[in-house]
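pinned: reference chain
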Amino acid sequence: MSTKLDMPIKPLPQFDNAEAAKLHVPPSAQVLKLMKIEDPLLRSGYARLSLFPAATQKLYPDEFEKGREMGIL
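pinned: its structure tokens
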């Protein structure tokens, strides 16, 4: 499966107007804290851990506590 390069790429109709751009919702405080982590590998790791906090707490207790201290989890 691949993209046909000879076809024009257009936005979906609901995103093809200026009004939709005004409806942008700013990111949450947790996401802003997550984006402050400079190391991309560490940032993506904490992002994945934040998806399943209960499993993270059980399987990765040290990382869970560090994430809570940073305000991500």
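why pinned: The chain has a mean pLDDT of 83. Helices lie at 18-22, 29-35, 40-51, 53-59, 61-70.
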